[in-house]
Amino acid sequence: MQVAIAIFTTLGGLSAIWFFRDKIDAWLRKKFTPTSVIPPSSLRATDVVLFERILRLLPYEPVGRFLQHQNFAGHFDTREWAGIHAYLSFADSPECRFLDSQLETIRCRMTKNLIQFLDGAHGNIWPGNAEHRIGVPNEWLNEEHPRYGEYWPAVSKLNALARSAHEPYALLVKKGRSKLP
Q1: pLDDT at 23
Q2: Is the Cα torsion angle 10, 12, 14, 16 positive or negative in sign?
Q3: What span, in angstroms and rounded, lies between the C-alpha atoms of 153 and 167?
Q4: 29-38, 58-67, 114-123, 136-145, range with the lowest pLDDT
Q5: Phi, then psi, of 170 in degrees rounded to 5
Q6: What is the pTM of this model?
């Protein structure tokens, strides 16, 4: 008799769970699904403000064009890359973070590549013969110079680093404009 009661009690419990499964599922989903405290419109507005600020610090003219087209075999004007320094000093701040994960991933890659570009540039460029002009020294082409033979590798490295910094910059502008109208 006790075995029969145990079996019927178990079957009754299983049928109750089966009968109320939709309510149990809804309760579990509600209980264990993370909810955002900030409404999506606020997230979008925050990202729009950050995107606009980044574009003010890194406008295509002159920064994007500089990264995309500058040939480092010649000297260039230091004012063309002033925006890079301004952006990198802002990039360290906690407010320079996209809430959209895709835009934030691209921004991080762009920041990393800009830092690598500046690191490569700071070891291979020197003041030129005019104010605000810097570049890889032409003296490195002279056979008597201690760094003879380093001119073309330095130029190639800087060209490659600049293009690799431009790629995520262009992608951030493209994705930002499509996601944040």
Answers
A1: 66
A2: negative
A3: 21
A4: 29-38
A5: -65, -40
A6: 0.73
ω into 62 cis (within 30 of 0):
yes
Which one-letter amino acid corresponds to residue 71? N
Whole-Å CA distances, 144 to 127, 139, 147, 149: 20, 9, 9, 10
| Residue 160 neighbours by CB under 8 Å, 6+ apart | none
Residue with token string 């490659």: 160
The pLDDT, as a whole number, for residue 132 is: 80
| Contact yes or no for 114/87 (Cβ under 8 A) | yes
Determine the Cα angle at 74 with ends 149 and 118, to 5°. 80
Strands (E), 51-163: 76-77, 126-127, 133-135
Distance CA 40, CA 46 (A): 10
CB atoms within 10 A of CB 174: 11
For the chain, how are helix, strand and coil distributed in percent, rounded to 5? 70, 5, 25
Asked whether the beta carbons of 76 and 127 are under 8 A apart, the reply is no
* Separation of alpha carbons 63 and 143, rounded Å: 34
pLDDT tens, residue by residue, 15-50: 666 666 676 666 666 655 555 555 566 668 889 999
At 21, which amino acid appears? R
